[in-house]
Specification:
With 440 residues, the protein is of the alpha+beta class. The chain is 50% helix and 11% strand. β1 and β2 form a beta hairpin. The chain is globular. 42% of the residues are buried. The structure holds protoporphyrin IX containing FE.
Length: 440
């Protein structure tokens, strides 16, 4: 007799559509209710598609380590394939493995030092452009800033002229089209806009690549470095492959970071006692105009704990999905093949037995002494296993540079008292969050 049952469904499902509406409008609330009703494994229904949700380090670990085995990551993100093409984990698994040395080269230690410099140039340029005293929407500002950093780090110092005016608007059109529920080829205006934007972005990137192919010695940037970086099979990437890779990289690399960077500043401003410790640390370890090299960055512990706490409370990529290819067990439940499976930050990041007072903003929980972040599988903000975010250090360093230089040079006050999470676009961002700054 098989004692293993499929998971129980969370309450609130409607005829025909199941939980689709709440899934789109308030995923955290839905997950938290499911967890409360049924524990670490529960289910929901999106139209006629069953989806199981798991919680906690052991189950999250199984989710990540079974990926590319009994769990499929490639097909489940077909809604992203329509936006970018077959790149990174949305490429077939053999091609993904073949391209992995390229990803490793892009995020090597030496490249990271270059990126750190690019971040500082762009963040300082942003701060220099702010003037002495003003109010701004930090959510909008971090989006522009992370675009500038991605442009400088991945394209070239001359990225503004090279990418042209409409480049980021086109990315925005793609972001707005991202929808894990609606089939990506339905005849909807948002998908038409996505396809037109994708064509323009690809055309632009192909032009940049062609210019570098013609005269590689005139450039020293990531694109030209990739001309000389073989894949696992010894072949070099074609222009088409480089184009698709850059589309994916630039997408993965800016909007998610923009969301968490803004939240990091908002949460610090909402917690002045902790902010004071951050400001003291910045004052003690940095000087205006001095480069933030690896050594200085390592001294900014309070800054990085704040960044980890932001990733716990306001993760900007909350949707990690797999398709179950072979039935898989989680405790007393078995998830049948054909189901979708998901990990949930809304439940895993609030486990009371792991995170003391999980609702409370408390960055020092990540200190070595407290060690609440020790088992990284409790935190799913950057994924795990083979497909764990390759850009995690890039993103964390970028957020650290933004936070450090802003609070090093400005006094800042939060004017919008309680910004909310804005769901429904590619990554979760904050709603308008006005801050007032004054140059020190
Ligand atoms: C706060 C910012 C970021 C968040 C929250 C985030 C989140 C994630 C998550 C959750 C995954 C795994 C998806 C899954 O397993 O289903 C992932 C993968 C990935 N991310 Fe990020 N990411 C961020 C920033 C970045 C940046 C800055 C880059 C590049 C510049 C980047 C590049 C990638 C790549 C290439 C992968 C695929 C890794 C693989 O399949 O081997 N991400 N990211």
């Amino acid at each position: 007799m098989n004692l293993k049952n499929p998971p129980q469904f969370v309450s609130g499902g409607k005829p025909i559509i199941g939980h689709t509406l709440e899934f789109r409008q308030n995923l955290s609330r839905l997950d938290q209710r499911g967890h409360k009703e049924h524990g670490d494994v529960f289910a929901m229904k999106l139209m006629n598609q069953n989806m199981a949700v798991v919680t906690g380090a052991d189950y999250n670990k199984k989710f990540y380590l079974e990926t590319d085995k009994s769990l499929n990551i490639t097909d489940v993100y077909s809604f992203l394939k329509a936006s970018f093409g077959e790149v990174l984990f949305i490429a077939p698994h053999e091609e993904y493995m073949n391209q992995r040395p390229i990803l490793q080269a892009i995020f090597s230690r030496t490249k990271m030092a270059d990126y750190l410099q690019a971040m500082q140039v762009e963040v300082q340029a942003w701060l220099d452009g702010l003037g002495d005293e003003e109010e701004i929407d930090i959510s909008a500002e971090t989006l522009n800033l992370t675009q500038a950093v991605a442009g400088r780090a991945f394209i070239s110092p001359n990225y503004k002229a090279e990418l042209g005016e409409s480049f980021w608007q086109d990315y925005d059109a793609i972001s707005r089209s991202i929808d894990p529920v609606t089939p990506p080829n339905w005849p909807l205006p948002k998908f038409w806009r996505r396809d037109a934007a994708k064509q323009r972005i690809q055309k632009r990137l192909k032009q940049l690549i062609a210019k570098r192919r013609e005269n590689p010695d005139a450039y020293d940037d990531l694109i030209t470095q990739l001309f000389e970086q073989p894949k696992k099979d010894g072949q070099f990437m074609t222009d088409e492959e480089i184009t698709i890779l850059f589309m994916g990289l630039i997408f993965a690399g800016h909007e998610t970071t923009a969301g968490q960077a803004a939240w990091n500043i908002i949460l610090l401003l909402q917690h002045p006692d902790y902010l004071r410790q951050v400001q003291d640390e910045i004052g003690a370890n940095t000087e205006i105009g001095q480069p933030l090299d690896g050594r200085v960055m390592r001294s900014l512990q309070h800054v990085y704990w704040a960044i980890d706490e932001t990733a716990r409370l306001r993760p900007s990529a909350p949707m990690q999905l797999r398709i179950v290819e072979e039935p898989i067990e989680f405790g007393e439940h078995v998830i049948p093949s054909g189901w979708l499976l998901r990990v949930s930050s809304a439940t895993s990041h609030y486990q009371e037995e792991v995170f003391a007072n999980p609702e409370v903003y408390d960055p020092q929980r990540f200190s070595q002494a407290r060690g609440e972040g020790k088992n990284s599988f409790n935190l799913v903000s950057f994924g795990g296993g083979m497909h764990k975010c390759t850009g995690m250090n890039f993103a964390n360093n970028e957020m650290a540079v933004i936070t450090t230089l802003l609070f090093q040079q400005f006094d800042v006050e939060l004017i919008t008292p309680d910004p909310q999470v804005l769901t429904g676009v590619g990554a979760n961002r904050a709603t308008e969050a006005i801050i007032r700054y004054r140059k020190k």
